[in-house]
Amino acid sequence: MSGTLRALDMQTRNKAKEIIKRIAENVAIGLGGSAEVDFRDGYIALINDDSVMKVVEKTAIEVVGRENILYKEFPSLGGEDFSYFADRIPSAFFHLGCGNEELKTTAPLHSDKFALDEDCMKTGIEMEVRTVLKLLGQNL
């Protein structure tokens, strides 16, 4: 059997591992067998730094307008390489919506129909550059 275990912090991740191991071993024993549990850790949780996120939010308001900003109600449990950077230095990860109904570029990112409205890249670059310039002026 295999599966994926994701958690928003290491304490929860480690506790879940303990519980899964105990359940697997005890169910196997109860059925007259044995179980071997092997975890291979994947990506760590990506946690945005609040102070950097405030700068990103301020920049987004300037670049795209408050009315065009959507806030996630719940954390995502997707895997992301950027989590390793964010674990080491204050960071913030955000999504830049690039769908354009007129150009029919509204398919999800990991779809074979995905197409990018390349004008969106200008917005992303502007967001990144303005954010970096603001952050360089601060001591975080």
Describe what this molecule looks like in 3D:
By secondary structure, the chain is mostly helical. The protein has 2 domains: 1-42, no CATH class; 50-136, DNA polymerase, domain 1, CATH 1.10.150. It is 44% helix and 0% strand. The chain has 4 helices and no strands. The model has no long low-confidence stretch (mean pLDDT 92).
In what range is the share of β-strand residues?
under 5%
In DSSP terms (H or I, runs of 4 or more residues), the helix count works out at 4
- The mean pLDDT is 92
CATH class annotation of the largest domain: Mainly Alpha
Unreliable spans: none
* CATH domain fold name of the largest domain: DNA polymerase, domain 1
Radius of gyration: 21 Å
How many structural domains?
2
Strand count, sense and barrel status of the largest sheet are: none
Structural class of the secondary elements?
mainly alpha
Which CATH-level-2 architecture of the largest domain? Orthogonal Bundle
Order of helices and strands: HHHH
Q: How many beta-strand runs?
A: 0
Shape: elongated
What is the terminal-to-terminal distance?
45 Å
Helical percent range? 40-55%
Main attributes?
140 residues, mainly alpha, DNA polymerase, domain 1, 2 domains, 44% helix, 0% strand, elongated
Task: Give a concise summary.
With 140 residues, this protein is an all-alpha fold. 44% of the residues lie in helices and 0% in strands.
Secondary-structure map:
Layout: H1 10-30, H2 50-64, H3 82-88, H4 119-136
Helix pairs in contact: 2-4
